[in-house]
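TA notes, week 10

Several of you asked for a full example with nothing omitted. So below is the full record: structure tokens for the whole chain, then the designed sequence directly under it. When grading your own attempts, check the secondary structure regions first.
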């Protein structure tokens, strides 16, 4: 148990460092790009996102999660999944290559023919790195993952900004995506000892299929859930409006991904190790729940509070229409990281069916909601989408609580203190800073004051996660200093 706690704490540290650094770099790169590019540029690339992500879901087909769930995967297992990914990726690229004119016609954007064919190269290249990434996650190589992600972000971001400065418009975003994936793959193969062989055997893939197919349907549903608005907006609204939404969604997703990504790198591996003892698994899961609430609520709800001054200070008034969208999206996104925990709980207990049905049902409800409200304007659509994201946490809780005998009252007791402390922190911060007129001074003041009040309240109320996090970082700093 102590060994698992140490490994988990260390993995969370590197995972958080990885995602925190990644999001910080994304913020800097995103600010430069948003100042150089127009909402239309973002809208044109944004409508292709759903195709790229869906193709990536299909080519991985849930086999990465299946590998992580195997106690001791062999070279044969990894090699089988690798060649399946590559074959699926190549096949999908050919299909989408010839579908490019239809995509351009659907969105009334002729430029999408050549652009989509280039952007889709990204998931073809990504096919070669899916299995090495699974190997790194399985072996909790979070420090190496952090280094690879940092290098990929720096190189691709610098090239993207340079191309935007050279007035390459939406092509700068396309090149940034493709180069990012290429650098990721190079780094993964550099660190991973395992290498593919040409002894191709799809036997292990067939054995994993019954588990993986549910993951496949679920990841497709998740992708649709997270990107359905961009797709629908691309059809019914002007491309500039789609660009404003893409910008607003990018910032909320960035903050949410910091939390979800940190958890995703360690949650399944840790829960699989703890699953042999239900009481132990319950304790591990509840601690992860408290950690999620500890980070997610202040990060996302805080971002909602500073959205106005953040947008105006960093990417100028040309993105003014994105502000109310961003505020609403951040509220819903604050609850999405809990999905990651419930999903990994289901998968670690080999209940990919729960994962599948919860996600599929959500996407059906989302589509029905959007279609029913499509004539009420973009703000109403975004608000209904965000409200559903909040409500759906209850569905996940009810669907998975029997796996570890988790009561609803236990979950509420775990998350409520962090939610109410966050609300109190933001209210006090708003009152203390509402008189400030300068946007940049207001932004900096609210971040500093909110951080101080939040930490103070955590210490006053003796919140366990805050105390343990403080002790861990103190030891980490002391060891490095020594």
């Amino acid at each position: 148990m102590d060994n698992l706690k140490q490994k988990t704490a260390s993995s969370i540290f590197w995972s958080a460092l990885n995602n925190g650094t990644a999001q910080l770099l994304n913020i800097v790169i995103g600010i430069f790009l948003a100042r150089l590019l127009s909402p239309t540029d973002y809208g044109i690339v944004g409508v292709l996102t759903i195709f790229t992500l869906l193709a990536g879901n299909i080519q991985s087909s849930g086999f990465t999660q299946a590998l992580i769930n195997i106690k001791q995967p062999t070279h044969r297992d990894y090699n089988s999944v690798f060649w399946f990914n590559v074959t699926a990726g190549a096949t999908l690229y050919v299909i989408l290559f010839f579908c490019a004119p239809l995509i351009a016609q659907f969105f009334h954007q002729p430029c999408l023919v050549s652009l989509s064919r280039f952007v889709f190269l990204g998931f073809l290249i990504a096919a070669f790195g899916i299995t090495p990434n699974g190997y790194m996650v399985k072996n909790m190589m979070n420090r190496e993952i952090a280094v690879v992600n940092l290098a990929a972000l720096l190189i691709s971001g610098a090239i993207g900004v340079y191309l935007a400065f050279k007035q390459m418009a939406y092509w700068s975003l396309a090149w940034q995506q493709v180069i990012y994936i290429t650098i990721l793959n190079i780094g993964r193969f550099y660190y991973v000892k395992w290498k593919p062989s040409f002894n191709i055997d799809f036997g292990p893939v067939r054995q994993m299929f019954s588990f993986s197919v549910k993951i496949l349907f679920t990841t497709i549903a998740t992708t649709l859930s997270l990107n359905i608005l961009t797709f629908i907006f691309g059809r019914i609204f002007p491309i500039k409006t789609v660009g404003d939404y893409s910008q607003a969604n990018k910032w909320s997703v960035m903050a949410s991904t910091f939390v979800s990504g940190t958890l995703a790198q360690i949650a399944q591996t840790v829960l699989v190790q703890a699953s042999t003892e239900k009481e132990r698994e319950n304790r591990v899961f509840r601690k992860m729940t408290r950690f999620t609430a500890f980070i997610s609520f202040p990060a996302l709800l805080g971002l909602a509070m500073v959205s106005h001054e953040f947008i105006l200070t960093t990417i100028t008034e040309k993105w003014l229409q994105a502000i109310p969208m961003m505020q609403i999206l951040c509220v819903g996104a604050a609850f999405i990281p809990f999905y990651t925990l419930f999903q990994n709980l289901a998968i670690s207990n080999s209940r990919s069916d729960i994962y599948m049905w919860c996600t599929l049902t959500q996407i059906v409800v989302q589509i029905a909601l959007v279609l029913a409200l499509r004539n009420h304007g973009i703000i109403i659509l975004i608000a209904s989408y965000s409200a559903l994201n909040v409500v759906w946490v209850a569905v996940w809780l009810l669907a998975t609580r029997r796996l570890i005998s988790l009561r609803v009252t236990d979950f509420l007791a775990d998350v409520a203190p962090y939610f109410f402390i966050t609300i109190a922190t933001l209210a006090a911060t708003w009152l203390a800073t509402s008189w400030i007129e300068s946007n940049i001074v207001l932004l900096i003041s609210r971040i500093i004051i909110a951080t101080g009040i939040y930490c103070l309240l955590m210490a006053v109320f003796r919140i366990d996660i805050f105390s343990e996090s403080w002790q861990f970082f103190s030891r980490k700093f002391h060891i490095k200093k020594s």
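The chain has a mean pLDDT of 81. Use that as a sanity check on your answer.
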